[in-house]
Write a structure and sequence with these properties.
single chain, 184 residues, Rossmann fold, 2 domains, 50% helix, elongated, binds magnesium ion
């Protein structure tokens, strides 16, 4: 006489076998490697939960924030890019002071980050003078960020503060980093 627990286990095994059989029919070429494990997990998740599994890990806001914290803790510094117009400089004369981003940059400098201004502004001597006069720290203007061991046209930063690149999330992530490090 089988116990209720054993019967439940057999029932679950049967369900699993049926699901596995369905999976193999729908994905005939998908067995035996890491990628396939993910394909099968995703397939199973969608079957059981009834909605698509989010495969884009950096669309989860905490993922990029937590990566910044762990990289800072590993290297004791991060290289951050920041845009000029519309991020720290009022090009369109809207009256904005950009004081929150400017203050964040000062605090990032305080915790040892390298800051690179990355701008399309033509007069770079104006940019340098403006940054100095407004106490906005910078370690370079339009110079590459993190040095890669190969040639690349992409300036590589741990994060980029730019009014045209999801500024609010990057601002919040870096604000979190600074507060976390300062209050540790
Ligand atoms: Mg801009």
């Amino acid at each position: 006489m089988k116990s209720e627990k054993d019967l439940k286990k057999m029932e679950n095994n049967k369900k699993f076998e049926d699901l596995w059989e369905d999976f193999r029919i729908e994905n005939p070429n998908s067995v035996g490697c890491f990628r396939d494990q993910y394909v099968s997990f995703k397939w199973l998740y969608e079957k059981l939960v009834g909605e698509s599994h989010n495969t884009d890990e950096y669309l989860i806001p905490e993922k990029s924030r937590d990566r910044l914290v762990s990289e800072y803790e590993k290297y004791g510094s991060l290289t951050i890019g920041f845009d000029f117009d519309g991020t720290v400089h009022d090009y369109h004369k809207t009256g904005a002071t950009y004081e929150q981003v400017r203050q964040l940059l000062r605090e990032l400098k305080d915790i040892g980050c390298t800051l690179i201004c990355w701008t399309a502004y033509q007069d770079l001597s104006f940019v340098a003078k403006f940054l100095e006069e407004n106490n906005i720290p910078f370690d370079g203007i339009n110079t590459n960020g993190i040095k890669l061991p190969w040639e690349s046209k992409k300036p590589f930063f741990s994060a980029l503060l730019d009014d045209r690149a999801g500024l609010i999330q990057v601002y919040n992530d870096l604000r979190y980093l600074v507060d976390y490090i300062k209050n540790k």
